[in-house]
Design a protein that fits this description.
This protein is an alpha/beta fold. The protein is about 35% helix and about 15% strand. It has a single domain (about 10-275), classed as Rossmann fold. This is Alpha/beta hydrolase.
Length: about 280
Amino acid sequence: MNIAVPIQAPKPAAGHIARVHDGTGMPVVFIPGFLETTDIWSSLLRRTRPFLPECHALSLPGHPPWVPEPDDHLTDDWANTIAETLEDLGPKGVRLVGHSTGGLVALEIARLRPDLVKDVLLIGALHAGDVGGHKTWTHAAAEMPWIGPFLLSAALKAWLRSEESFRAGLASSMADRAGLFDVPVDMREMMRSACPRTLHALLQWMSHRDGADLSDISAPVASVIGTRDAVISPHHQIDTLRLLGNSSATLVPTGHLPFLERPDLFDPLFLGWLSRRTPN
């Protein structure tokens, strides 16, 4: 089994961002998806380490190592607050890589701060909270303002109950389950400290995204789309590109986690994106 690259938890003052690789060049910020920790990127970082610039990983609200304040809740401008934190990473801007919900967050930051975000790489990303009308239990939880956090808490406990249930949950999103061997073993333990109330607030924020403002994004957006993705349909992901002005896509025969399922296909795509000249 591969050994995961350790990712240190950021201090609260760092805006829930951790440096994961020292290098030169414009910083790249990796944003994981819903119910993922920043460790999800470990195997990709390990495999491509010789070619990486300075890299950071951002934890989503409610996800470890997110450090909640007393009476923690998600304000309407939380994405803008995170963008302000990213300003400290590089005077010339940053590049964003977002998986699933992390892709939605990356697009929101790019929309809010065109001066800061130079380009975006989406992986299995959504652009609207309803995911093209494909309702899941997470959307049902978002629509229940009082009982939603309790449903999330119960679902998390069931998923994290054992190593087998944890891996079974991840496997359901994969077309090639060989990628399970690259899932960091620490992710299950870290997710035990997730905050259901803040996770619910994040779901509610997602539920209000409809993609109507994607045309405001000026940064180039590239997308890697798994043709066998059962979580975010390929059609929904392609619709994202139709709503953007400057975008491109590559289709790969994987499920929702191409960087774990087929490194042989994903890594060259990632390194090709990394080598592109970014706009000034």
